[in-house]
Amino acid sequence: MAETAVLTLDHVSKHYDDVLAVNALSFEIIEGQCFGLLGPNGAGKTTTLEMIEGMTPPTSGEIRYRGGPVPANYQDRIGIQFQATALQDFLTPYDNLKLFSAFYDRPLPMQTLIDAFQLQEFLHRDTRRLSGGQRQRLLLALALVHDPEIVFLDEPTTGLDPRSRRDVWEVVRRLKAEGRTLVLTTHYMEEAEVLCDDLIILSHGSIIRHGSPKALLAEAGVDTLDELFLSLTGERLDAAEATA
Amino acid sequence: MMVARSVKRIWAVFKARNLEYLRDRASFGWNLIFPVLIVLALAVVFSGPPQGIFSITYLGTEEARPALLAFPGIETVETTDESRALDRLARQQTDMVITVTDGAVRYWVNGYSAAGALTEQLLKFSESRPLISGRTEGDGIRYIDWVIPGILGMNMMYSALWGVGYVVVRYRQAGYLKRLKATPLTKFEFLSAQVMSRVMVTLSASTIVFVGTNLLLEYKMVGSVWLLLLIALIGALSMITMGLAIASRTESKEFADGLLNALTFPMLLLSEVWFSLEGSPEWVQWIAMTLPLTHMLDAARAVMLDDAGLWEIAPHLGVLLIFCGVGMAISTRLFKW
């Protein structure tokens, strides 16, 4: 079956005053695949993600959706799980699901989301009292409340314990199996290897490697993405994140 | 269809904001308890016997000043606004009004006031120039009657400005607005929901406080309740839109706090919340008239104490509506998620 590019970036750059945050990025995100953005803090990951999400416009270059301009109802087609999202104080997961469902024309039934993300046990608890894993499941549910075709996941497992992290991986696998396109940023190399079909490694706003995890490892002759990153930049990616 | 979608989204945000407010028991309780505590404290403080000082409002020049004004125990308020001075005399907020014209001393006292009769005798005893007397009539008002609109207005001002201005900045700082930006919710829908929610909260809380304290203290309310509600509605809207304008781009809660304080402090001081500005320099009174709370309180007192009608308070409502328009225009133009 022919691969269809659902999103295409063509020489996309972003300047903040005199600072060049992202430099002429060009790549495609294929429908139904999990696309990974890797890089240390300051590499341009978040800026790139925000441009693809439509949250911030590029300074130059073009982003295309299925070969054409990004449609006016793009927000209806994408779901975003931000890394650090605050929710309204004193609201429960149930209140939040109701609120976000009301923003869309055809939201998924609440019970479907509650079951899919196992929200039942803390459905009526103040969101400020949720554990990291429970909170992440709720944020994922909110990102999927309108059944989007593209899902953006910004470091979905950062700060989670190993069990919660594996729970999120399961959800990501399920989303892939449903045929959704996923765009994921992470600084866990193991996560990128396990989940991503295609990825780019960013450094100082530019792509320094692009390919599938397997192809990149074979090309560099190393066993893990961690080693690849070390060989490219002279530093470990998670160490760079930790000290940033 | 577009309108129906928009209404659905506004309603959802409106409900969520109300839930957040109602479940925040500390803030909710404080908004109700704080003004009641102030009213009760003032009622206790000002419930004693009269202070034994006669208040005389003088509208003349320094050279023509009557000797009476130099007597011990006489408090003099100087002003140039004769009609306002006579209004205060009718409410027994002053005991006598004096002006000097063509070498004669013209004075007014309130026929219902014993203090007025006494100051009249003192004036006759101390004055050698010809006297022309005038009479006005009206029941006196207690300080509590006068200050109640001020306290309610002050509470509305804090609730409106902080309840929107501070909360929106908190949402922005926490990244919640960014999350909303990623949905089809528009700026207009979000702002409308915030305004509606805060109007409802502010009016409900003020009504509860108004009715509750009136049951306890039976203060003066001679005008139309509906007119008072209209003043409260437009007054609250003007403050809320100002709060939104401040919050439209501010990213730091501390900076928002500073801006909101800079806005509320002059109103607290100059909008006649606690005391009348009569007798203060003209430029101070001019500044006071540029503040929305001044217009809200002037209109509310006119309705509550003097049974003013819509036509009489229309200029104040007009100014408040201008504040609403400017605040909304700035906030919709500048608002950043």
Question: Could you please describe the fold and organization of this structure?
Answer:
The complex is a heterodimer of chains A (244) and B (337). Chain A is α/β, with parallel strands linked by helices and 244 residues long. Chain A has a single domain (5-69, 91-243), classed as Rossmann fold. Helix content of chain A is 36%, strand content 25%. Chain A has ten helices and nine strands. In chain A, the strands form two sheets. In chain A, strands 5-6-7-3-8-9 form a six-stranded mixed β-sheet, sandwiched between helices. In chain A, strands 2-1-4 form a three-stranded antiparallel β-sheet, covered by helices on one side. The longest helix of chain A is centred in the last third of the chain and has 16 residues, at 162-177. With 337 residues, chain B is α/β, with parallel strands linked by helices. Chain B has two domains: 2-45 and 142-334; 54-136, no CATH class. Chain B is built from twelve helices and five strands. Chain B has helices spanning 2-23, 25-45, 82-90, 114-126, 143-174, 176-181, 187-217, 225-247, 253-270, 282-288, 292-306, 310-334; strands at 54-58, 74-78, 96-101, 104-110, 131-136. Chain B has a five-stranded mixed β-sheet with strand order 2-1-3-4-5, sandwiched between helices. In chain B, helix 4 links the parallel strand 4 and strand 5. Chain B is elongated.
Features:
heterodimer, A: alpha/beta, Rossmann fold, six-stranded mixed sheet, three-stranded antiparallel sheet, 9 strands, 25% strand, globular, disordered C terminus, B: 337 residues, alpha/beta, 2 domains, five-stranded mixed sheet
